Amino acid sequence: MPTFTSNLLSVKKATTDLNCYAIFGPNNVAFQDIESSRLLGQGSTKEGLYVLEDTNLSPSALSSAFSFNVSVANDAVWHARLGHPHQRALNLLLPNIKFQNENCEACILGKHCKSVFPKSSMVYENCFDLIHSDVWTSPCFSKENHKYFVTFIDEKSKYTWLTLLPSKGRVLGAFVNFYAYVTNHYNAKVKVLRSDNGGEYTSHAFKQFLSTHGIIHQTSCPYTPQKNGVAERKNRHLMEVARSIMFHTNVPKKFWRDAVVSACYLINRIPTRVLNDISPYEVLTNTTPTIDHLRVFGSVCYVLVPGEKRNKLEAKSTKGGVLEKGF
């Protein structure tokens, strides 16, 4: 067929799409509709191959199915000729082309970055059964000379603890303090720690502390941050909130420490869809957080100075907002 887009035809796909029989003889081939028994197409042999004849030779006996498939195939050819563009660009360039990108396997394979990691089906019943952790590096030093922070996220409550660090070598000390805090205040034990494969988590001293306290350490494979996705997404969320509150009041970059600690405090008290619209604070403590004391980050409030007249006020900066105490 001169109008056909390919010189080979899949018999299985043709019979499935057209709902027809494929009848092969020594010197000819015919496609017959299963329901109406009408002849859809026919062909003869040529040099050892079955050659499909033009379906327009017998308009009264043939279905329009072949013509429709040829049209769809032509659309796919134009999609391929133009380098597999997105559907809107294809429609703007060729308005008569009707092609769905989700039907193109080449687009699916060629345009996704990595295969999607399956979600874990493991359910942790108690807080602190699993702790996620990751270290974030700042592009500049804070006014307190901090360059890093480490997060510890509880799997069940999604509550986040944040510790600011001058160097990555302090990660072990931060985890030791966090472990002592959990043991003392919540009468609980950390059972599993999940982190990336960074040297700050795989040092001999860190491994020895985990082994001594019976903590299982789960590390992600190299170049697969998706496996430590909870901590990675939390760092992103923290920085999105921190940048937003800094841009809102035009705070200098050196105050990023105060901004990220304030962001951590606020995120812990904001309802999230992951917890069915409950805040991490409420899941962890079984109490509803209060927000009456919150002020805009970087704003200035006025408080009465004790022992002086009521109309005499002193400006007190709330730079940093409400801070979540680190370890």
UniProtKB/TrEMBL annotation:
GO MF annotation: an example: nucleic acid binding
Protein name (record): Integrase catalytic domain-containing protein
Protein's GO biological process: DNA integration
Protein's organism: Microthlaspi erraticum
Record PROSITE patterns: INTEGRASE
Domain Integrase catalytic, chain residue ranges per copy: 114-288
Listed Gene3D superfamilies: Ribonuclease H-like superfamily/Ribonuclease H (3.30.420.10)
